[in-house]
Amino acid sequence: MSSTKYTIVVSGTLSERFVSALTGVSAQPGDGTTRLDTEPLDQSQLHGLLERLRNLAIELVSVQESSSPSPVSGPKVLVVGAGIGGLATAVALRRRGIDAVVLEQAPELREVGAGISLWPNAILTLRRLGIDEVERSGAVVSGGDIRDWRGRLVHRSSTDQLEARFGAPLMMIERGVLHNALRDALGDVVVRVGTRCEALEQDSTGVRVTLAGGAAERFDAVIGADGLHSVVRHATVADGPPKRSGVRAWRSVVALDPRLAEHLPVGESWGKGALFGVQSLPGNKAYWYAATMADRTDSAARTSDRSDLLRLFGSWHAPIPELINATEEGALLTNDLFDRPVPTALAFGRVALVGDAAHPMLPSLGQGACQAIEDGEAVADALAESADPALGLLLYNERRLSAATAAVTQSSRMSRVSHLRNPVVVALRNAVLRRTPAETSLTRLGPIIGGRPEATEPTRSRS
Ligand SMILES: Cc1cc2nc3c(=O)[nH]c(=O)nc-3n(C[C@H](O)[C@H](O)[C@H](O)COP(=O)(O)OP(=O)(O)OC[C@H]3O[C@@H](n4cnc5c(N)ncnc54)[C@H](O)[C@@H]3O)c2cc1C
Questions:
Q1: What is the pLDDT of residue 72?
Q2: Measured on CA atoms in the order 328, 331, 337, 342, is the torsion positive or negative?
Q3: Which of 73, 97, 109, 383 has the most other CB atoms within 10 Å of its CB?
Q4: CATH superfamily of 76-139+161-242+340-412
């Protein structure tokens, strides 16, 4: 295995003796950063050193082969998948001046789904990517109280404090609007629809990608943004298919009577093993979603109609039955939700994973797409900072792995709490939630939903 000397820059002016004693690498403190010059290391030694730095809570700024010159022209990068994660990645790559091509297996570019919540971490990232359409066309979430199924308050929300605390609000938007905003920001990036990636293989100089039909192409790096059943994940992590979580979800967008729209009780209502959430959308519309524990042995999401939902939620507090009745059958979306552990790495040489391909999560926090958007920016930044795509992707992994893992863990915890079924445990949970101050929940979730507020300017903008 070949060994290479690396120059690693970490955040903070650290004592030379402290760093050398803990990592065995010579260090040169600078102005706000410290430079570490390694002896020749192979890839696993480099991984070990980066992990030691992470365990010491030392933040990585860049990693580069010591002899490599600054990048002159960027790599040619393939993004597999044009969902929210893939489009955000392609927009960010373009803003960093990196050549990107996007493959999408579907015959046309569109997002299926109802509404979506975007927390400050996503809004701040979209701002840095120059996308302000979401803030123009979405609705600021002004409340998110938790009630019981009869409508009695269980936990007061603190969404009104988000802007002051993190610099951006929580927003609700129709998925199609978000998708169009990302698509419009693609500029000259080529999206090849109706083109499926079937397999990939990498060597030390690039990645060979095989398309459906048998044609093959080479790229300097590949970003797998191909969702839950990712081919790119299969080619790298190879951890089999995702597992059913046991949760079934329904969602839709409905038009409301203006009087109801004005007084819509937004937030979530939790019953035994079931929840129903409602949020306002602009134009007298509401986004509602519901979830219950489903039979894990079910082989597929059933076609589900309003009568199923009325059987489950028909006796819940107003306006829940009214919202279900106002939903058109064709506008009702049903999914069985899947889950899988986060892999131990998000980058594998010249290939990396973003969004649901990397870390699908239960939607209890509304963070899946938010994390995918953050991934997209981070992977583009990291590729722009390193002459060697494999090192850039390693940097991406260092910056995003623990944040995404925290979002997955917290989403799964929240899902368990909101789907409790035992009446005694439900009563106990509600009693604890009644006594929990709103600020406590915000502080606990801050590292996930707050994102990184500092603005980063694109290094080589083409816009
Ligand atoms: C009920 C529900 C509610 C949710 N609510 C929220 C919310 O409020 N807020 C939030 O942030 N998140 C939410 N999420 C999560 C969010 O929807 C996902 O995390 C996000 O859409 C993932 O985007 P993605 O681009 O990674 O993957 P996907 O959206 O799955 O996109 C993958 C794309 O890749 C394409 N593709 C797949 N394989 C290939 C291939 N081999 N070759 C070429 N193309 C391929 C697919 O056609 C698709 O277009 C929710 C999820 C669910 C199920």
A1: 43
A2: negative
A3: 383
A4: FAD/NAD(P)-binding domain (3.50.50.60)
pLDDT > 70? residue 385: yes
Q: What is the pLDDT of residues 209-257, one digit of tens each?
A: 999 999 999 999 999 999 999 999 999 999 999 999 999 999 999 999 9
Could you tell which of 108, 226, 292 is best to mutate to test the pocket of ligand 1, judged by most ligand atoms within 8 Å of the CB?
226
Query: For position 439, what pLDDT does the model report?
Result: 84
Q: Cα(346) to centroid of ligand 1, in Å?
A: 17
pTM exceeds cut of 0.85 = yes
- Report the CATH fold assignment for 6-65: Alpha-Beta Plaits (3.30.70)
Tokens encoding 435: 């006594």
- Distance (Å, whole) CA 5 – CA 298: 53
The binding-site residues of ligand 1, defined as CB within 6 angstroms of any ligand atom, are 80-86, 103-106, 116-117, 196-197, 225-228, 231, 249, 251, 335, 337, 355-357, 363, 366-370, 372
Indicate which residue's Cα is closest to atom 17 of ligand 1: 369
- Cis-peptide, bond into residue 319, ω within 30° of zero: yes
The least confident of 40-54, 107-121, 245-259, 383-397 is: 40-54
Contact 445, 410 (CB under 8 A): yes
Q: Whose alpha carbon is nearest atom 41 of ligand 1?
A: 197
Distance 100 CA to ligand 1 centre (A): 20
Span 33-64, pLDDT tens digits: 888 888 888 878 888 888 888 888 888 777 77
Residue identifier of the C-alpha nearest atom 7 of ligand 1? 366
Cα(387)–Cα(64) distance, integer angstroms: 7
Is the predicted pLDDT of residue 402 greater than 60, yes or no? yes
Residue ranges per structural domain of the chain: 6-65, 76-139+161-242+340-412
- Among 291, 278, 281, which Cα is nearest to 250's? 291
Residue (of 104, 159, 168) closest to 134 by Cα position = 168
Residue minimizing CA distance to atom 50 of ligand 1: 363
**The pLDDT of residue 448 is above 70:** yes
